[in-house]
Design a protein that fits this description.
The complex is a heterodimer of chains A (244) and B (52).
Chain A (H helix, E strand, L loop, with lengths): L1 H6 L3 H33 L13 H28 L2 H33 L8 H22 L3 H15 L2 H11 L19 H33 L4 H7 L1
Chain B lengths: L2 H6 L4 H39 L1
């Protein structure tokens, strides 16, 4: 593992490794997502209270999980950038931000589409889960804005890393918001310490979607990483050799 | 189960299908855009180096 991490410290190795890993991750993600969609939309029984509307769970919950997971990836990469000043971690943090923003956007939009038929409202300003997730979206967008606002790449990466680390405070707030405050949003169903309160035929496609989204995220992340690397390193000899 | 009941989603078709539709669009765009950008970058860098 450690050897692999030091191996990826070289931009050239990281670029070549990504090129090989993207199709593997991407195809596996696609297959798992398609199977889970079938499980979630066809095989799983309708919910006894929500009917078929509950099926939105198969995109909403994995998207929300991803929005938190990607933030932790981004913040960890930022932390490594601040401590060890490594190039690869800068690139990973920069590439993760737009993907994190996309999943957060999806969690909010699908939540809204679920809230309308179930709660009778698209949005509730006083709801802590909704607001903390909205703040997460702003953190991602702030990160991306800061990135483009600062000319020098190294300075930008460091400033963004600080922003990302400060924003980590929001992550436990999102997670525990449904327990700390009264909200419209329901409490956790799967990540409880005792047995999850969900039928197994409903649970498996949900976990499948989460795994599929995670693999998808890594393939899309590496695709962005590759662009960043050849754009930054276009004057180096290995890029010239690679492309000719 | 026939196709019509499946598409109907117990009356929630609008909400269910727009959720999955938006997700599909966002995920596909996020995958395609770096691939297109990579292709353009490669073209651009090649051009620069052959000019010299």
């Amino acid at each position: 593992m450690w050897k692999f991490i030091t191996y990826l410290q070289s931009a050239q190795n990281f670029y070549q490794f990504s090129g090989k890993a993207i199709p593997w991750l991407g195809w596996t993600a696609l297959i798992i997502i398609l199977f889970s969609l079938y499980g979630g939309l066809v095989t799983a029984p309708a919910d006894y209270q929500q009917g078929d509307a509950f099926r939105i769970i198969y995109v909403h919950v994995p998207a929300a999980w991803m929005s938190l997971f990607i933030y932790m990836v981004m913040a960890s990469a930022g932390f490594i950038t601040l401590i060890w000043r490594t190039y690869s971690s800068e690139v990973v943090a920069a590439a993760a931000a737009p993907l994190g923003a996309s999943f957060t956007f999806l969690a909010l939009v699908t939540g809204s589409l679920w809230g309308k038929p179930m709660w009778g409202t698209w949005w509730e300003w006083s709801d802590s889960r909704l607001m903390s997730e909205l703040i997460l979206l702003f953190l991602y967008l702030g990160f991306m804005a800061l990135q483009t606002a600062i000319e020098d790449r190294k300075t930008a990466a460091r400033a963004c890393a600080v922003l990302a680390l400060v924003g980590v405070v929001n992550i436990p707030i999102i997670h525990y918001s449904v327990e700390w405050w009264n909200t419209l949003h329901q409490g956790p169903t799967v990540t409880k310490f005792d047995k999850p309160s969900i039928h197994i035929d409903m649970l498996i496609p949900l976990l499948g979607m989460a795994i599929g989204f995670t693999l998808y995220f890594f393939s899309a992340l590496l695709a962005r990483v590759r662009c960043e690397i050849i754009s930054n390193k276009q004057h180096t000899d290995w890029v010239k050799r690679e492309l000719t | 189960m026939d196709m019509q009941t499946f598409l109907h989603m117990g009356g929630y078709a609008l909400y269910v299908w727009s959720s999955f539709g938006i997700a599909a669009v966002v995920l596909v765009l996020n995958f395609i855009s770096p691939i297109i950008r990579h292709r353009n970058l490669v073209k651009q860098i090649r051009k620069k180096h052959t000019r010299k």
